[in-house]
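Exercise 3.2. Students should predict the tertiary structure of the chain below and write it as structure tokens, then compare their answer with the key that follows.

Predict this chain's 3D structure.
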Amino acid sequence: MSSRHIVVYGATGHTGRLVSAELRARGLDVILAGRDGVALKALANELGGGEPGVRVHQAALDDPAALRALAEQASVLIHCAGPFTHTGGPVARAAVEGGCHYVDHALEQHHTKWLFDTMQEPARQAGVTMVTAMSFYGGMGDLLAGAVAAGLTGIERVTTAYAVTGWRLTTGAKATAELLFADTQRITYEDGAQHVGYVEPRNAVFPFPPPLGPRTMIAPIPSSEVVTVPRHVSARRVEAQLTAHTFEEEQAFTSEHVDAATRAGSDFTVAAQVITKDGGSAGQVSGHDLWRLSALASVEAAVRLAGGQGPEDPGVYGPAEAFPAAPFLRDLERLGLFTLTLPGRAES
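Answer key:
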């Protein structure tokens, strides 16, 4: 991994653009990658014209040779092109075969499980680190769960809860949501074990702290925490929930082509509640623009991996496995992405 370049696959999508712009703002060399060469060149011109720090590499998902050649040029590949149910396998395999670290924005349970089940040993043999679900949905819940649960024992239940207003789905996010909510083989985590099968959705009430207060939730949602959280938190049950009103907003599914400023108008609170035999604890983040949070979370992960600040051993990791959860969240807070509240013992 001699190259200093960081690859952004799916660079011309909304998240990919935010990731690419942030990398360039930090003075890092990037390779903008995806299937549309014309769009990639246009983005390269926006980010720096003919500067040597911005390169373009066209690689379709059904061209493994081009994907591997892409990975061979980089130290880290950030995968931004969902739905990961369809795109995750080819890009993840190419990263391992090309010998570069990998970060993705997936929230899909089955993709995350596939990475742990299938890519763990190849990643170890290749000496690369793969961090999955480093995004808003899934990633923030996993990091918060890790920070809140630190030092607790006898954990009965971990619940991650997302309160979101003003979410404007991109084309990729809309396709992902449609796939997830049509899935009848969902992964759940109950009685200390994973289960796969049909899950009857229900309404629940989550006690967000003031000023938000208790909210009606869709429970469970098919997010990746049920795969990642049990890897670092010993709990009997893990569940993710989403405010019921989020998808009731009129423009959520009809705003694929809104401008970037409109898409940045989301407000969010993400909370993690950890219930133990003796009580429990909770923490939360509250902020604006979940897309920017997703982008910068993956940039922070990639920069750490490129600088040798990732896990000691290669392999596949969730966010809070790969990096100390509370310090990582504090670094994101310093970037102005949200306000963080954690239990006193988790602040270090």
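Discussion points: The chain has two domains: 6-135+295-325, 136-289+339-346. The longest helix spans residues 109-126.
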